[in-house]
Design brief:
By secondary structure, the chain is an alpha/beta fold. The chain is about 30% helix and about 25% strand. It is globular. The two termini are about 15 Å apart.
Length: about 200
């Protein structure tokens, strides 16, 4: 098994990514196991923040690292909360407060279109000159009242019209097959097979 550090301590991300990487004989460990400090995320793009997180985790552990930067982008809000999704309602991070702020921000708006974006970066070392970069998008719309118990983050408010359900109502397997992270992960895994 190849030991790889995930540049996150998010249990939801660890579970989803770990399940997708298991067939490749990759053992994913959260950066908290190695006391890796959280990386600064000063950038306005998912890609730049993701690369900073991957390099930070690899630098502190000496292991290959995978980072994820993702968020919900709402059309009528000009793509917000975007890279600020996890802290949309401020510190400390709170899914409940983030969702409340999102619903309040859309009050009176008929355009509820949104998409999740996920960028994944894999680096073999902190100074890897050829990081593997993969991106996925998952389209839906924001609803006013939560539905479903699964997922995390904005999932109970993210409705997928073709599924007739929110992301939180899908099983983990269904979500991994179609989500932004699932799409990005499939691309990342293909590149890892070729290059690693």
């Amino acid at each position: 098994m190849l030991k790889v550090v995930l540049a996150s301590n998010n249990k939801g991300k660890l579970r989803e990514l770990g399940a997708l990487l298991e067939p490749l004989a990759i053992e994913l460990h959260p950066q908290g196991e190695f006391d890796v400090p959280e990386a600064e995320e000063p950038y306005n793009t998912f890609l730049e923040n993701c690369l900073a997180k991957a390099r930070n985790a690899a630098c502190h552990t000496g292991l290959p690292a995978i980072a994820d930067d993702s968020g919900i982008c709402v059309d009528t809000l000009g793509g917000a909360p975007g890279v600020h999704s996890a802290r949309f309602a401020g510190e400390p991070k709170s899914d409940r407060r983030n969702n409340e702020k999102l619903v309040q921000s859309l009050a009176g708006s008929s355009n509820r279109k949104a998409h999740y974006t996920c960028v994944l970066v894999a680096v073999r070392s902190a100074d890897d000159p050829e990081p593997i970069i993969a991106e996925g998008r998952w389209y839906g719309e924001v609803i006013d009242h939560p539905q479903g118990e699964g997922g995390f983050g904005y999932d109970p408010y993210f409705f997928i019209p073709e599924a007739g359900q929110t992301a939180a109502e899908l099983s983990a397997e269904e979500k991994n097959a179609v989500s932004h992270r699932g799409q990005a992960m499939a691309k990342l895994v293909e590149e890892m097979k070729k290059r690693w």
